[in-house]
Amino acid sequence: MRRGPVSFVLRLLFIAALLGVWEWAVVFFQTPAYIVPAPSSIAYAMYNGIATNLYVGHIGATVGETLLGFVLGCALAFVLGTIVALSRTVEYYLYPIIIMFQAMPKVALVPLILVWFGLGLTSKVISAALVAFFPLMVNTIVGLRSADEDRINLMRSLSASRWQIFRMLQLPNAMPYIFAGLEIAMIFALIGAIVAELISAERGLGMLMQSMSFTMDVAGQFSILFILSILGLILNGLVTLVRRQVLFWDTSRDADANEQSATKGEVL
Amino acid sequence: MDATVERPPPTAYSSVKDVISVRRLSLKYGRGAAGLLALSDISFSVADGEFIVVVGPSGCGKSTLLKVLAGLLPQTEGEASLNGTPIKGSRRDIGVVFQSPVLFPWRSVLGNVMLPADVQGLDQARMQQRALDLLNLVGLQGFEDRYPRELSGGMQQRVGIVRALIHDPAILLMDEPFGALDAMTRETMNVELQRIWMERRKTVLFITHSTAEAVFLADRVIVMTSRPGRIGDEFAVDLPRPRKLAVMNTEAFGAYVKRVRAALNPGGGGLD
Known about the structure:
CATH superfamily of the domain at 18-93 and 169-264 in chain B: P-loop containing nucleotide triphosphate hydrolases
Largest sheet of chain B: 6 strands, mixed
Order of helices and strands of chain A: HHHHHHHHHH
CATH architecture of the domain at 56-211 and 222-246 in chain A: Orthogonal Bundle
Structural class of chain A: mainly alpha
Shape of chain B: globular
Number of helices of chain A: 10
Largest interface: A-B, 19 and 24 residues
Largest sheet of chain A: none
CATH architecture of the domain at 18-93 and 169-264 in chain B: 3-Layer(aba) Sandwich
Strand content of chain A: under 5%
CATH superfamily of the domain at 56-211 and 222-246 in chain A: MetI-like
CATH class of the domain at 18-93 and 169-264 in chain B: Alpha Beta
CATH topology of the domain at 18-93 and 169-264 in chain B: Rossmann fold
Number of helices of chain B: 8
Strand order of the largest sheet of chain B: 6-7-8-3-9-10
Number of strands of chain A: 0
Number of strands of chain B: 10
Radius of gyration of chain A: 22 Å
Order of helices and strands of chain B: EEEHEEEHHHHEHEHEEH
Oligomer: heterodimer
Structural class of chain B: alpha/beta
Distance between the termini of chain B: 23 Å
């Protein structure tokens, strides 16, 4: 549905009104700041954090872990997904294991990862990679298998080799699915990194949040939540930007990316 | 029923000039008693440069026949050969046009047309020139950099035809290529196809369920009846070329259409 500038202003006013009600309720009910802080004190905490240069290092750490984990998890997911999609034999033997892992809440593995890989960068990257892995692997399999039978017949009628069918038909055909998987994987990688940091870390927004919780700095924690959602939007936007370039031909590109995802029911 | 069907003498099948030769071909889907006999005892041959139309109702096995000729399905019994060599898997001297245009949305019009050249590793520069000439022939000059989604259904199918011609195959196999188009576009495309065929003189095997389309295009019509698919009638269409759409209003044309119908409905085919 197309809406005009008037509705856009109304939308902003609606958000402003919500914040106003929140501010008013905190004052009116005299809610202690260590339970629910007022938007004004969150903004103040945010301002303080920026002024004292508190966030930059932690944001850098979290983004670094997220991106490294994303690249590692997605590379493995793409390779394994491709092998499974192309070989029924491999699929037959791996399928029960894949199903089991898919049903498992991946973040429950993070404490173990910390034991195995220590408190530094490695454990955070592996945790992010693990959580990012499944949505892309499932989408890679579904995408590579979704090639239309007529198109495969066309390639076969041209005496195309299996590699040519993969390279010229199955892979480009799978790209919308793969990008839908990448968009989810990016957000999942951020979740994986944050969860690992919350449990135990030397740096990062999750670790900062954890330390604030010890000092009852609830306004500070809210300011980090706000930063995290902005980070999520930016990281997701990066993938969307690349998708628009690569998938210029995909007419469904403006539709909700999740509609093409086979991982709607993915368990974190 | 065999007695009423005119068949060429057996020697005709082994003629050297035959580009397509099919002898006693049968195809069964599935095994044993539960198997479905899709094609039963099909025999025919096509001479070099001939335009053959196979017409029949849906489910009569005509698409299956084309898949056998394209090397996409192995027959259960009998022989099929192209240019004198038995069909074993796909081959490079055929071009196939499918029911839908089957274009790749990530390739431009030129890219789609060049697909056979890319798959078969043909000389890019030479093929590209050929592609542009062929696009010109079907009236798509200036569209080479467009993408399939920007084209109408008729234009897309023209791209599909050019793609089937690009590697200069001796034989063109067409599986109801205009079935998805509206009636008027379809008639225009029939006239177009006749023109392209008269210029390029390929051997064409064209499959349709439209009796009018069959008679309009064919040098020779093969009528298939269903369950199992077998040849009900086979006759030459002796109408001068190039045929114009107005030929459809002539008595001779009507007589041919009647003959197709009679073969499709041996019992008279009335609703009463």
